[in-house]
Design goal:
Strand content: 15-25%
Largest sheet: 5 strands, mixed
Number of strands: 33
Helix content: 25-40%
Mean pLDDT: 75
Radius of gyration: 38 Å
Structural class: alpha+beta
Low-confidence stretches: 158-162, 426-447, 449-512, 522-561, 622-693
């Protein structure tokens, strides 16, 4: 049961609709070497500063990288886009340089530095702020200095571009500058101790309030009236204990807003595509927070490292607060938030009303998440104003998209919400009732007539015109372009109220093709009653003899008479009755546990049912015309038939409906080829026999099937495919059955079947993907994927498995690197079946690294299903982007000297794989794999785990690195006997003469290490007892002498301390 959010907290919600990980991947900012350090956003740009000194300017329209500005003066610490002139951007580097860039985008010129300031040399700039009227940039640093640099640009007047404006120091405050803000000639400076207000025109300063504070507290101006009116903005300054001061331009504190008690309410969950939101209604304790920054747009915003807080300043209330982890910096533009996280990730959040959030989720076909938000925020959904975005019909369609098998509880809760919906106000409802009270039509701009039926009619639920389907696809694709103005969106919604809400279907191609079928069948039904139509049967064409140059004759047939049609209908009905009887018998048999659990009995039951299915719904066995006797002519005819129909699908001729008069109107100008894979769509395509390698994909049943029979056939067909098509044999027959009866199969069940049952047979997966590609071919998303770049295409993916295959075929490894955003919809097993091994590894590495560091090991363990994947993935990681074996192994298979210093491309993944819990046999196998590939760090770790310490000591001696005997990851000898074994191995193997004497695994270094552990006398005596000759250099002898002296002094101190404890000292007591 989904908890319901209280009514007072239902006004707004933070939602995350898309993933920016592909953007960072394309910019190479997802690696550990280069990270995003700061960001700024405007109407046009998303600016990202990096640790390498680069500034990436991303055009938000299409998310394309437009420019990259490089800086050799250090990493980028601050960046700020000019709010009202997006041709300017200010940047601060780690060396204290402040640069103002003019981009010259409109003139298509090269960007140039119009101002440079070294006023903060050697100091870290902590805040940047624009005065857009005068094109000035204010900068504050850790030392408390605030300076001003003016951009020299021709936009300021003639000659301004040739003038070098001096850098002006505004003031130096008592401590580090936390935040700067500017409004109408006034600059606010928030330091660690207090806020200062500066009139930049009259050069006067005020302190805001009288009380100091200690820590990072932000401050900003918040406009209260129309722009340009002086004195309308108010100043808001953060205070300790979740308080915010409201002050005037003169620095006078007008009021103090207390949010400590208000933040005791439970947080609203983040609505994200990544996981389902969970609301905990339990009341929390009051929060005493320090708001490090204050941002404003339409509301006041702040954040901590664990949550985002949004306030309404005019009422002093909490609009919402949401838990978002590891937030370092936020940039705001209108209702959009761009968040930079501590690990370099970016997230894009939108602040919106619940009904707008549900509407956008439905347009993106995220049905489960949309229904969850509806139930959780139902107090906002049931209000009358929400009907503008969410009419009752649209919520009914949302309910229809949910699975009745697995989401019954969610459906019941959504039905309860729908029953409580309030209608629109009288004006709107009367306008809508006049439209929907009877059937009417509208003429669209393109000339298509659209029928508007009564709400709840069967035609609305079961059919849709091509015009509606096309508009649906366009609306859904447009939704991926981020809206820039909430008011404009609301206006568009109100204008669309006069039309019937468009249906949201999860399978657009099926609907489009069904609309074609309805139109054709309706047209044929009305015309065949009056006239007879001549039809050309492709099977009766007489082919010309090309060798003799003769002209072939064309065989023309006349459509059957009504009596013949009645006979065909009777025959079809009898076949369906036969199929229903066979299906019912098979269903009753598999319900018996004795049959279901016995593979032989189950195969016999399915083998008896399959021929009936083949006879009724299988391909027709077309006989050849008697006139064609020449075998070569028949071969030509078959080749031409196959080539002409290789891209065709079978279109359902009629559907089983309770209302035979229902149909959808199509205009005569409409081209059916636009919605079908090819221009010719036969009602019944001739299939080759089962043994033939050519088999078309059948998306729809060749005969109308009742829903109950369709469900039973689907169950048996999936079971028959899982059993490997008993009675036919061979993987080829499985592929043919999959293609021939694709319309009966559960797509998700078949996908899992390909992953598990047919994992070793890639041709089955290819057949499934071919069917899915044909199924989605009519969608406009396919056209976008084929024509657009990767970043844009990723935003349009809806049929995830199908579209990811298309993207991989087009972009290769680059596409696979971006697929972790689709987890868990797309699993690693899916990528393994899709991609090459060398492409799968970057995906797996990115997927694991996307989790928090403390969660990576357990997350990787959860992906190992089945357990044998551990060795497969380890073998892949050891074989790709790895050192050459001749560089890590000697010809006799021993470690090569210092070869453990080689870099392994997937070292992080390798380290996690060998650290996962495993049984003894598995660890021994991994040990052998690491040894044969020369991955010595993993080999030493597994030797320690398996207690094979002598082998580890031998490898360390050959690697010749004493650091491997130290630290938590090293193998430290635990007894004197192990030290002796190590010393003997080092004498046998010998050192290769490293220039670094301190880390050589030489006998002398080992003896010194033993001396430090056990003491000089004890260690040297024990070594001599084991027959080891001790030859120490003068340096080592001196070390032993110093250790003896230290040991004696330590013993003397211990004796002295013991004597002091035994002495009884009496303290005299003085009395008056």
């Amino acid at each position: 049961m989904i908890p319901v959010v209280p009514v007072e907290s239902c006004t707004h919600v933070l939602a995350e609709f898309d993933c920016l990980d592909p953007l960072l991947s394309a910019l190479r900012l997802d690696s550990g070497r280069i990270k995003c350090t700061c960001l700024s956003v405007s109407r046009k740009w998303l600016a990202l500063g990096t640790s390498a000194g680069g500034l990436h300017l991303i055009q938000r329209d299409g998310w394309k990288q437009k420019l990259i500005l490089t800086h050799k003066e250090g990493s980028i610490t601050q960046v700020s886009c000019c709010p009202h002139d997006e041709d300017f951007i200010a940047v601060a580097t780690s060396q204290g340089l402040v640069v103002v860039w003019e981009l010259h985008v409109e003139r298509r010129g090269r960007p140039e530095r119009v101002s440079v300031s070294w006023e903060h040399r050697g100091q870290t700039v902590t805040s940047l702020c624009w005065d857009t009227a005068a094109l000035r940039v204010f900068a504050g640093d850790v030392g408390g200095k605030v300076s001003c640099v003016r951009a020299g640009s021709s936009k300021l007047g003639k000659g301004s571009a040739f003038v070098m404006f001096p850098v002006q120091t505004i003031t130096t405050v008592d401590s580090r500058v936390v935040q700067l803000g500017y409004s109408d000639g006034h600059l606010v400076v928030s330091s660690l101790s207090r806020c200062y207000l500066c009139d930049t025109e009259r050069e006067k300063f005020w302190r805001v309030g009288n009380k100091e504070r200690d820590g990072e507290f932000g401050a900003c101006f918040f406009p209260q009236g129309p722009a340009g009116q002086r004195g309308q903005a108010l100043l808001y300054c953060a205070r300790p204990g979740s308080r915010i001061w409201e002050a005037s331009f003169s620095g006078e504190v007008l009021s103090t807003h207390q949010f400590k008690q208000l933040l005791a309410c439970p947080p609203l969950p983040l609505v994200s595509y990544k996981n389902e939101p969970h609301f905990n209604p339990a009341q929390m304790s009051p929060q005493s927070l320090a708001f490090p920054r204050l941002l404003h747009d339409q509301n006041l915003l702040s954040w901590t490292d664990s949550a985002i807080y949004i306030f309404t300043p005019h009422s002093g209330q909490v609009l919402l607060w949401t838990e978002v982890k590891d937030v370092v910096e936020i940039s705001v533009f209108r209702h959009e938030l761009f968040c930079l996280h501590g690990d370099g990730r970016l997230s894009h959040l939108s602040l919106m009303s619940p009904e707008r959030c549900v509407e956008r989720l439905m347009k993106r076909e995220n049905w489960t998440l949309a229904a969850t938000v509806c139930c959780m925020l139902q107090h906002a959904i049931i209000t009358s104003r929400a009907r503008k975005s969410l009419p009752v019909d649209r919520l009914e369609q949302l309910k229809a998209q949910l699975s009745s098998a697995s989401q019954q509880q969610l459906i019941g809760q959504l039905e309860d919400v729908i029953s409580k919906l309030e209608p629109l106000d009288s004006a709107c409802s009367s306008r809508r009732s006049s439209i929907s009270s009877h059937e009417s039509f509208n003429v669209l701009d393109c000339g298509i007539y659209r029928v508007i039926s009564r709400r709840g009619s069967q035609s609305d639920d079961d059919s849709s015109s091509l015009a509606n389907q096309s508009m649906l696809e366009e609306e859904r694709l447009k939704e991926f372009g981020f809206t820039e103005d909430e008011q404009a969106e609301n206006g568009e919604t109100e204008r669309d109220l006069q039309f019937l809400p468009l249906p949201f279907r999860s399978k657009p191609p099926r609907v489009a093709l069904q609309a074609v079928r309805d139109s054709v069948s309706s047209f044929v039904k009305k015309t065949t009653e009056k006239i007879n139509t001549l039809q050309m049967n492709a099977d009766l064409w007489a082919r010309p003899d090309l060798r003799e140059g003769g002209q072939g004759e064309v065989a023309v047939t006349v459509t059957p008479l009504p009596e013949e049609e009645d006979a065909e209908e009777c025959s079809s009905e009898s076949e369906l009755l036969e199929l229903r009887a066979a299906t019912k018998k098979a269903i009753s048999q598999i319900q018996d546990p004795m049959v279901l659990l016995d593979p032989v009995s189950l195969g016999d039951a399915l083998r008896e049912w399959a021929p009936v299915l083949e006879r009724v719904l299988g391909p027709e066995d077309h006989t050849r015309p008697t006139e064609i006797t020449n075998q070569e002519q028949r071969t030509l005819e078959e080749e031409e038939l196959v080539s002409s129909m290789s891209c065709c699908v079978v279109v359902q001729p009629e559907i089983y409906s309770t209302n035979p008069d229902e149909s959808t109107t199509l205009t005569e100008e409409e081209d059916l080829g636009e919605s079908m894979p090819c221009s010719t769509a036969p009602l019944r395509a001739p299939f080759p026999p089962l043994a033939n390698h050519v088999e078309l994909i059948q998306l729809f049943s060749p005969k109308p099937l009742p829903p109950d029979l369709q469900a039973d056939l689907s169950q048996l067909a999936c079971l028959y495919l899982e059993m490997g098509c008993p009675g036919r044999g061979g993987i080829e027959s499985v592929c043919v059955f999959l293609r021939r009866y694709f319309f009966l199969l559960d797509q998700e069940r078949v996908r899992k079947m390909c992953m598990l049952r047919y994992r070793e047979h890639r041709e089955v997966m290819k057949a499934y993907i071919a069917g899915m590609l044909e199924f989605t071919q009519a969608s406009k998303v396919v056209e976008v994927i084929q024509k657009s770049d990767l970043l844009k295409s990723l935003l349009y993916v809806t049929h995830t498995h199908t579209h990811t295959h298309m993207l991989y075929d087009k972009h290769g490894e680059v596409a696979v690197r971006a697929y972790p955003q689709f987890y868990p919809t797309i699993l690693p097993s899916d990528i393994m079946a899709m991609a090459l091994p060398s492409h799968f590894l970057p995906y797996l590495d990115n997927l694991v690294q996307s989790r928090a560091e403390q969660q990576r090991l357990s997350f990787l363990g959860s992906l190992l299903q089945p357990e044998t994947l551990r060795h497969d993935w380890l073998e892949l990681a050891l074989s790709h982007d790895a050192p050459q074996r001749e560089d890590t192994l000697t010809p006799d298979g021993h470690p090569r000297w210092r070869s453990h210093f080689f870099s392994w491309g997937y070292g992080r993944l390798l380290s996690l794989l060998i650290r996962l819990p495993a049984n003894l046999a598995s660890k021994q196998k991994m040990l052998e794999m690491c040894r044969t590939h020369g991955y010595w760090m993993g080999y030493l770790y597994l030797c320690r785990e398996l207690q094979r310490r002598p082998e580890a000591f031998s490898a360390i001696c050959r690697l010749d690195d004493m650091t491997l005997l130290e630290g938590d990851d090293g193998i430290v000898p635990q007894s004197l006997d192990e030290w002796v074994v190590l010393l003997q191995l080092s004498q046998q193997i010998g050192s290769n003469g490293s220039t670094d004497w301190s880390i050589r695994v030489s006998p002398e270094n080992i003896i010194l290490r033993v001396v430090r552990v056990f003491g000089p006398d004890r260690a040297l005596t024990a070594l001599q007892e084991h027959g080891i000759q001790v030859d120490l250099s003068s340096r080592s002898t001196l070390v032993c002498d110093l250790l003896r002296m230290a040991e004696k002094r330590q013993s003397s101190m211990l004796v002295f301390n013991a004597k002091l404890k035994n002495i009884n000292i009496k303290v005299p007591v003085y009395t008056k």
